[in-house]
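ok so for the tutorial part 2 we go from a plain amino acid sequence to predicted structure tokens. step 1 is just haveing the sequence, like this:
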Amino acid sequence: MKRLTKGFLSFIMMTSYALGMSAQDATFVPADEIPSSLRDAASLKLTGTWGTSAFAELKMALGTNAIGGSNMVLTRVDMGEAVIEDGTSWYVSAGFTSNGVFSSCKALKEVVMPVAEEAAHLVSMEKAFANYLVRFMKGGKVSGAAKLLCNE
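step 2 — the prediction. this is what the tokens look like for a chain of 152 residues:
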């Protein structure tokens, strides 16, 4: 029993360390201070109050707003603590056309959605993850390493 308890505690400590390391690796992006370029960021944690224009600015920073533009680096987006303005759309201006905010983020594997109360303020998620979830759809089931995590 003592051995089992020691092993369990070791597992908890290693898991906590791993989760802490992934949180440290994330680039924090406040809605009112979006950097001009996030093309090299592998993981984003969105904070602050986000509206359609902030998501359009984020798309520009990711480098996916140009025709044929793609991002091959971003693997994770965490919106779990983001506040979403009422009437926000993830279908945003992309130069001469409009497209989904995370479309053409071809390495994206994990998206942590805003909490339900915040996600309810979204009016459109059209093409938000084009070239992301579509890649993993096979016979109506999500396969591969894709994760779309929803908060309660």
